[in-house]
């Protein structure tokens, strides 16, 4: 996958490739796959062939090495057609970036090329039944025995865990550490004895993608799979990945909001009431104007966050702003699209009801929007001391 093409030209080539892929390989099959809640195995294989699982992985390890701005545009395009496939890439790349940013050279050589091809594919196992946003409250324990860690505990809401084969597993390696995050570590965990997918979770939307509960009973991981080789750094290692995840989720929000707008603009020109297309009614024009503004503003916020991430700057405020605004835009536009479409928007014959069901996940996942506003405010104060 190594390339000497100018990054801007490479980005355009890849975006064109993604557009063709979505038109031919995804769009015709979305409604049936979503209705059946069926894992899109054939689509995932095509994504592997295209190298999309390595789009952020550095060229020296077999990836495209794309910048985050191009990545966000890929995710936006995917989400405008079917949000579920963007999640299949997101969780996998947070795993890969945890290794690329924090792993030892031996770990990078062993895992990144296989992540890039999709041979090893998975996500991040952070959330537990009694702990979501407060990651320091996790209970999954890893006890060292010789050259292995023995792990016991449970995780929930883990994407790519049924059909994937590897996760970045956040564990407690020191229960007595104060503060608690100093006793947390991140492991590269491949499926094996003691690693059980206990059940698939049923969801309102976000169908097709595998979201599961995991159980670990005396599951063993070699010590050399401790990311970075030192205990106590797991929470910090994964937080950088969550910034990337929030940019991904924000880009999904733009995709949902954009799709809802495009569907509404087209429908409003075809549907007639009182002798004229509804796009000529002021009430509909007000909705379309608001929807278009949300899309444009959300896209700019995502781009700003992606640029900050690419510069290597701390960008929890920028990512939080993008995530908060863009995902709310997705929810609001999907509801307005349903109102514009009337009864047809409520029907499974059109895409609007799927957008409406998919959008609410975005305001919850990768840190709730309530938490994003707190992060924004705290960073605002920290960056502007009196």
Number of helices: 11
Relative helix content:
40-55%
Low-confidence stretches: none
Distance between the termini: 50 Å
Which structural class is indicated by helix and strand composition? alpha+beta
Radius of gyration: 21 Å
Choose one word for the global shape.
globular
Strand order of the largest sheet: 2-3-7-6
Q: What number of structural domains do the residues give? A: 3
TL;DR of this structure?
52% of the residues lie in helices and 15% in strands.
Structural features, described:
The structure is a single chain. By secondary structure, the chain is an alpha+beta fold. The protein folds into three domains: about 5-120, Acyl-CoA dehydrogenase/oxidase, N-terminal domain (Butyryl-Coa Dehydrogenase, subunit A, domain 1); about 125-230, Beta Barrel (Butyryl-CoA Dehydrogenase, subunit A, domain 2); about 235-385, Butyryl-CoA Dehydrogenase, subunit A, domain 3 (Up-down Bundle), CATH 1.20.140. Helices cover about 50% and strands about 15% of the residues. The protein is built from eleven helices and nine strands. Strands 2-3-7-6 form a four-stranded antiparallel sheet, covered by helices on one side. Strands 1-4-5 form a three-stranded mixed sheet. The longest helix has about 35 residues, at about 235-270. The model has no long low-confidence stretch (mean pLDDT about 95).
């Amino acid at each position: 996958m190594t390339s000497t093409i100018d990054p801007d030209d490479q980005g355009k080539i890849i975006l064109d490739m993604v557009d063709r892929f979505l038109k031919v390989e995804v769009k015709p099959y979305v409604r049936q796959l979503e209705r059946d809640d069926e894992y899109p195995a054939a689509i995932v294989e095509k994504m592997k062939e295209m190298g999309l699982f390595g789009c952020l992985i550095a060229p020296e390890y077999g990836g495209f090495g794309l910048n985050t701005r191009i990545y966000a545009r890929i995710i936006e395009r995917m989400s405008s057609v079917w949000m579920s496939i963007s999640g299949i890439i997101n969780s996998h790349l947070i795993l890969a970036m945890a290794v690329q940013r924090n792993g030892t050279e031996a770990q990078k050589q062993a895992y990144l090329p296989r992540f890039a091809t999709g041979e090893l594919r998975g996500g991040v196992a952070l959330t537990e039944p009694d702990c979501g946003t407060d990651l320091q409250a996790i209970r999954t324990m890893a006890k060292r025995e010789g050259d292995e860690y023995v792990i016991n505990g449970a995780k929930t809401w883990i994407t790519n865990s049924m059909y994937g084969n590897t996760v970045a597993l956040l564990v407690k390696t020191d229960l007595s550490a104060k503060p608690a995050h100093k006793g947390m570590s991140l492991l590269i965990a491949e499926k094996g004895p003691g690693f059980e997918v206990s059940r698939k979770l049923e969801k309102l939307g976000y169908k097709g993608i595998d979201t599961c509960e995991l159980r670990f009973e005396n599951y063993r991981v070699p010590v050399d799979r401790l990311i970075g080789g030192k205990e106590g750094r797991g929470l910090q290692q994964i937080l950088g990945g969550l910034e990337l995840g929030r940019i991904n989720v924000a880009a999904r929000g733009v995709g949902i909001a954009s799709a809802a707008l495009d569907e509404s603009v087209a429908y409003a020109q075809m549907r007639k009431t009182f002798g004229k297309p509804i796009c000529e009614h002021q009430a509909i024009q007000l909705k379309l104007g608001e929807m278009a503004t949300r899309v444009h503003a959300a896209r700019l916020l995502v781009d700003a966050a992606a640029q900050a991430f690419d510069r290597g700057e701390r960008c929890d405020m920028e990512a939080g702003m993008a995530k908060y605004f863009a995902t709310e835009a997705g929810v609001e536009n999907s509801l307005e699209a349903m109102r514009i479409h009337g009864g047809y928007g409520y029907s499974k014959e059109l895409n609007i009801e799927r957008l409406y069901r998919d959008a609410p996940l975005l305001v919850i996942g990768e840190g709730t929007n309530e938490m994003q506003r707190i992060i924004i405010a705290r960073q605002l104060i920290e960056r502007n001391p009196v």
